[in-house]
Design goal:
Blueprint (H helix, E strand, L loop, with lengths): L10 E5 L6 E10 L4 E6 L4 E5 L3 E2 L10 H4 L2 H11 L6 H29 L17 H4 L3 H19 L6 H10 L2 H16 L8 H23 L22 H19 L4 E4 L10 E4 L1 H17 L6 H4 L1 H23 L16 H7 L6 E2 L2 E2 H7 L1 H20 L7 H19 L8 H4 L5 H14 L2 H8 L6 H30 L11 E3 L5 E3 L10 H14 L11 H25 L1 H9 L10
Antiparallel strand pairs: 1-2, 1-5, 2-3, 3-4, 6-7, 8-9, 10-11
Protein name: Delta(14)-sterol reductase LBR
InterPro entries: ERG24_DHCR-like, Lamin-B_rcpt_of_tudor, Sterol_reductase_CS, Tudor
Subcellular location: Cytoplasm; Endoplasmic reticulum membrane; Nucleus inner membrane
C-alpha cells in the first residue's frame, strides 16, 4: 500500500470537486481506509479529496493556452481544413481569430458555471474568499442544470468545428463538459455530502444500549418514587408484577388521548406559517394552534371534573400509563423507520443517514415524516407529551388532596404545578419558535424523539409532583417566595434569550433589532455578540437549568431523587452544547472561532 504524499498541516493546491480549478488548502487529516485527504479551504470549508486531486504548490503551474502550444504546421493545416473555398484570405484570418476569442470566452463561462453548480449545499455554499453564496442557486435541480448548461454546450460544440486542436483532444473536451458528466458529478457530491459521517451517542453500540436503558430508567424512577424510603440505598426496588405494568384499558385511554390531540391539531384554527428552508430550498407549512389545543384540553378536563370523573385514576395507574406510552413510542418508531426507507434522499435527516440500522432507527432516518399535511414530528414535539405533563401534574395534585385528606393542596405542590404550567404555556404560546430548533431543522424523527416526546417528558418531568404525593414536604412562605424569585429569574433569561435568537433568525434587518451586533458568516447568517448571546454562548440553557432547580427545591432535601431532573438536565444540555459547538464550527468556520474568542463562556458565566 503506497505511503501518503502530503503531511498534516501542509499547504497544497486542492482541486474543487467537479471542476478544473485549484485553490490553496491545508491538509488536516488522512483516512487510511478510504485513502482520502481532509483539506480545509481558507473560508473554513472542509472537503475530502483524493490524492490525485491534490498538487504541491511548487509543482503547480498555470496551464498555457492551447493556441500557443500548437506547432505552426498544425495551425496551418487546421486553418486550411476549416476555410471556406469562397472566402478571402484576410477575412478567413480575422474570422479564425474572432472564433478563437469567442471560443475561449465560452470555455471560461462553462468552467465557471460548472464550478458554481457543483458546490455542496448549505455548509459548503461559500466562495473561496469567504463571501456568502445563495443556497437557492446551489441547490437547483437537474432540470435547471440542463437548461443552464445546454445552450453553452451547443455553442461550444459549434465552435469546436473550427478548433485548432486534434480530434482526440476535441473528443476528450466534449466528454468533460457533457451534460451527463455534470449530472453524475452533482449527484455523487450531493449523495456523499448527505451521508452522516460522525456518529453521536457512542455510535451503534451506544444507541443500542440507550434503546434499552431509557425505558429501564423511567421504570426505575417511578418504582423508587413509590417506595416509602426512595433513597439510593434501597436499590434495586422490588420488581412489579406484569399485571401492575400492563392493562389493555389503560392503553386504550392513552390511544384516546393521543388521537384527541391529533384531532385538535387538524382543526382549521390558528395561522399557517412556513418553516426554515430545507436542503433543497423548499419550505414546509405548519399550523400554529398548540395554545388553542391546550385551551380545548382544559375545557375537556374541566367537563370531566364537573361530572365527577376521578382524575387521580392517572396516579393509581401511573406505571401502566408509562408502559403504554413506551410501547406506543416503540411501535411508532418502527413505523417511522420502515417508511423512511422509501423516502427520497433529500428528505432524510442529516444526522440520521449513516447507513447503520440501529443508529438511524434511534436518531431518526427521515427529517420531516408526514401523512398528507400531518407532520408527525412537529405534532409530537408539543402536543401529547407536553400538554399531558400538565394533566399529570393536576392529577397528582388531586391525588395528594384525596390521600392526605386535604381541603387544599400543599404549598410545595402548588409551586411545582405553577412553575411547570408556566413553562408549558410559554412553549405553546411561542409555538412558532420551535421551528428554528435543531429538533425540527436537523434531527430526524426516530426512537430518540418519539420516546422523549411521548414518555420522557410527561412521566419524568412530572417526577417532582409524583414524589410529593407519597412524600409530602412542608415549606414556609419566605422559602416559597425565594424559590419563586429564582424561577422567575430563570424564566426571564430563558424567554428573552430565545426571543432574541428567534427574532434575529426570522428577520435580521428588523429595525427593532438594530441594537444587536453580530459577526457575519460565509453562510449569510450572523452570530450575535450582544444581548444574552454576548454574555454566554447558550443563555437559553442557563435559564433552563435555573428553572429546573426551582422545580426541585419545593421537594426538600430528604432525598436526591427529585433532583434527578436537575442532574439529567445539566448532562443533557452539556451534551447538546458540545454538539452545537461541533456543528457550528463546521458550519461557520473561522467566524465561529472569532465568536468563541469574543464570548468565551459556554453556559455558566466565569465557570463553563
Amino acid at each position: 500500500m503506497p505511503n501518503r504524499r502530503f503531511a498534516d498541516g501542509e499547504v497544497v493546491m486542492g482541486r474543487w470537486p467537479g471542476s478544473v480549478l485549484y485553490y490553496e488548502v491545508q491538509v488536516t487529516s488522512y483516512d487510511d481506509v478510504s485513502h482520502l485527504y481532509t483539506v480545509k479551504y481558507k473560508d473554513g470549508t472542509e472537503l475530502a479529496l483524493k490524492e490525485s486531486d491534490i498538487r504541491s504548490q511548487s509543482s503547480f503551474k498555470p496551464r498555457k493556452s492551447q493556441s500557443s502550444s500548437s506547432s505552426p504546421s498544425r495551425r496551418s493545416s487546421s486553418r486550411s481544413r476549416s476555410r471556406s473555398p469562397g472566402r478571402p484570405a484576410k477575412g478567413r484570418r480575422r474570422s479564425a481569430s474572432q472564433s478563437r476569442e469567442h471560443k475561449d470566452d465560452k470555455k471560461k463561462i462553462i468552467q465557471e458555471t460548472s464550478l458554481a453548480l457543483l458546490k455542496p449545499s448549505e455548509n459548503n455554499t461559500r466562495s473561496y474568499n469567504g463571501e456568502p453564496d445563495s443556497t437557492e442557486k446551489n441547490d437547483m435541480s437537474c432540470k435547471t442544470l440542463e437548461q443552464k448548461l445546454k445552450p453553452a454546450l451547443e455553442i461550444e460544440r459549434a465552435l469546436e468545428q473550427y478548433s485548432l486542436r486534434s480530434r482526440k483532444e476535441e473528443k476528450k473536451k466534449e466528454e468533460i463538459y457533457s451534460e451527463k458528466k455534470v449530472f453524475e458529478t452533482v449527484k455523487t457530491i450531493e449523495k456523499a455530502s448527505s451521508k452522516t459521517k460522525e456518529l453521536e451517542f457512542g455510535g451503534r453500540i451506544g444507541t443500542f444500549l440507550m434503546i434499552l436503558f431509557l425505558p429501564a430508567t423511567v421504570l426505575y424512577l417511578l418504582l423508587m418514587c413509590k417506595q416509602d424510603d426512595p433513597s439510593l440505598m434501597n436499590f434495586p426496588p422490588p420488581l412489579p408484577t406484569f399485571e401492575s405494568l400492563w392493562e389493555p384499558r389503560v392503553f386504550g385511554v392513552f390511544l384516546l388521548w393521543f388521537f384527541l390531540q391529533a384531532l385538535f391539531y387538524l382543526l382549521p384554527i390558528g395561522k399557517v406559517v412556513e418553516g426554515l428552508p430545507l436542503s433543497n430550498g423548499r419550505k414546509l407549512q405548519y399550523r400554529i394552534n398548540g395554545f388553542y389545543a391546550f385551551l380545548l384540553t382544559a375545557a375537556a378536563i374541566g367537563t370531566l371534573l364537573f361530572f365527577q370523573f376521578e382524575l387521580h385514576y392517572l396516579y393509581d395507574h401511573f406505571m401502566q400509563f408509562a408502559v403504554s406510552a413506551a410501547v406506543f413510542a416503540m411501535v411508532l418508531s418502527i413505523y417511522l423507520y420502515i417508511r423512511s426507507l422509501k423516502a427520497p434522499e433529500e428528505e432524510l435527516a442529516p444526522g440520521g443517514n449513516s447507513g447503520y440500522l440501529v443508529y438511524d432507527f434511534f436518531t431518526g432516518h427521515e427529517l420531516n415524516p408526514r401523512i398528507g399535511n400531518f407532520d408527525l414530528k412537529y405534532f409530537c414535539e408539543l402536543r401529547p407529551g407536553l400538554i399531558g405533563w400538565v394533566v399529570i401534574n393536576l392529577a397528582m395534585l388531586l391525588a395528594e388532596m384525596k390521600i392526605h385528606n386535604q381541603s387544599v393542596p400543599s404549598l410545595s405542590m402548588i409551586l411545582v404545578n405553577s412553575f411547570q404550567l408556566l413553562y408549558v404555556v410559554d412553549a405553546l404560546w411561542n409555538e412558532e419558535a420551535v421551528l428554528t430548533t435543531m429538533d425540527i431543522t436537523h434531527d430526524g424523527f426516530g426512537f430518540m424523539l418519539a420516546f422523549g416526546d411521548l414518555v420522557w417528558v410527561p412521566f419524568v418531568y412530572s417526577l417532582q409532583a409524583f414524589y410529593l404525593v407519597g412524600h409530602p414536604t412542608a415549606i414556609s412562605w419566605p422559602v416559597a417566595a425565594a424559590i419563586t424569585i429564582l424561577n422567575c429569574i430563570g424564566y426571564y433569561i430563558f424567554r428573552s434569550a430565545n426571543s432574541q435568537k428567534n427574532n434575529f433568525r426570522r428577520n435580521p434587518s428588523d429595525p427593532k433589532l438594530a441594537y444587536l451586533k453580530f459577526i457575519p458568516t460565509a453562510t449569510g447568517k450572523g452570530l450575535l455578540v450582544t444581548g444574552w448571546w454576548g454574555f454566554v454562548r447558550h443563555p437559553n440553557y442557563l435559564g433552563d437549568i435555573i428553572m429546573a432547580l426551582a422545580w426541585s427545591l419545593p421537594c426538600g432535601f430528604n432525598h436526591i431523587l427529585p433532583y434527578f431532573y436537575v442532574i439529567y438536565f445539566i448532562c443533557l444540555l452539556v451534551h447538546r452544547e458540545a454538539r452545537d459547538e461541533h456543528h457550528c464550527k463546521q458550519k461557520y468556520g473561522l467566524a465561529w472561532e472569532r465568536y468563541c474568542q469574543r464570548v468565551p463562556y459556554r453556559i455558566f458565566p466565569y465557570i463553563y
